[in-house]
Amino acid sequence: MRQNMPETTETETPETPTVNRIAFDSAADDALSFFNRRGWVVLKQPLSNLRVRLIETAWEDMTRRLSSDIGVSVSRYLDVISQWRDLWKSDPRFAQALHDIAPPAAAMLELPGVRLFHDHIICKTENGANGEVPWHQDSMYWPVDRTGLSTWVPVQDAPAEHGCLEVADGSHLWGVAEPVDFMQDEARLPRAARTSLLPVNAGDMVLLHSRTWHRSAPTSQAGARRVAHIALWLPQATRYWPDNADWHPTNAQVTVGKDEVLNDDEFPLFGLPGGGAGNTRENKNPTVTRTGGMFGSTERIEKQVQNLLGSREDSLVDLLSDKNNRNMIVNKIAGQTPLPRGDVSDVVEQLWISAASFAKHRSRNVFCSAYSEWGKLHSMLEHEHD
């Protein structure tokens, strides 16, 4: 283990986060003990420099291809879109990386093998796609019956000022909470806790229990870009439980019935089969009230755009893909709000890029920036009509 500073005691709750200096050389017993106690652990460069570079170039190739498909420049695309999911299906370089990433995940779950829920990349730039990911737990968003963990690997160094992870120590032991709405909730921690910033270098790996509360701030350095590969891992025996999150996009990939083991074709296995059920604690959570916010946001905004254009049938992406329709929306709103026309046009363009990216590629803005800005704009329009 590499350790540059003493570990603070479990009872301390400082006013500012502790900057973590503890990293382990392998996923051995001391790392497992740390993970079980704290709900997170940092491993020192389990991925080679070559592997990290292959992930980065695969992502760069992908963003060039997808931005071209939408019809915008890469820089404009990255101002809006910040998350790409199911990478392993799109490029062998991502799929190959998972074979290096899976073993530490299996070690922390104390299993010979693990099941991939999905992998994705989140990118923060200094411009639009650079929001705060608020305090949340991961598995509360998953339509499954078990908890698991996530692996978080930056492809460039991720110091504190680049939006590194911040975790609430031991919060995986707090139990189940309702999924946080990134668009509405203040998302404060449910109780006082010591928190830790986890600055890491390219190729280092953070492993997070899926109930560990965590967040990340925007990158604050000019010209900085924070790209992190994230994979979500489950015990192989995990079963489908849509009651948790029937709105999650992965529901469309499930071909088994409720309370049946997830299908291997969409949720592949890594490592040796069998070896027990892993963490079988139930992952049930309170029902999400879908009124406003990010849950059901596409359907809500689709109706708003349909009303503005006098259309009741076309989808949001079909409506916004027509530049004449976008101009019509800008003309209607610009004349009824105090905002400059250029600001209104920018919001509508962001909304179109977001809708088109999700419909075509299941890529999105994880910070909900475009939908949040549209919500403010539409609320302003409604206020003018009151």
Walkthrough of the structure:
By secondary structure, the chain is of the alpha+beta class. It is built from nine helices and 14 strands. The strands form three sheets. Strands 4, 5, 6, 8, 11, 13 and 14 form a seven-stranded antiparallel β-sheet that branches. A five-stranded mixed β-sheet has the order 2-10-9-12-7, with no helix packed on it. It starts with a strand and ends with a helix.
Q: Name the helix and strand elements from N-terminus to C-terminus, one letter apiece.
A: EEEHEHHEHEEEEEEEEEHHHHH
Instruction: Quote the beta fraction.
Output: 15-25%
- Give the overall shape, derived from the CA principal axes: globular
Helix % is 25-40%
* Spatial separation of the terminal alpha carbons: 63 Å
**How many beta-strand segments?**
14
Sheet having the most strands = 7 strands, antiparallel
* Rg calc: 21 Å
Strand-pairing-aware structural class: alpha+beta
Number of helices: 9
Low-confidence stretches: 1-14
Mean pLDDT: 86
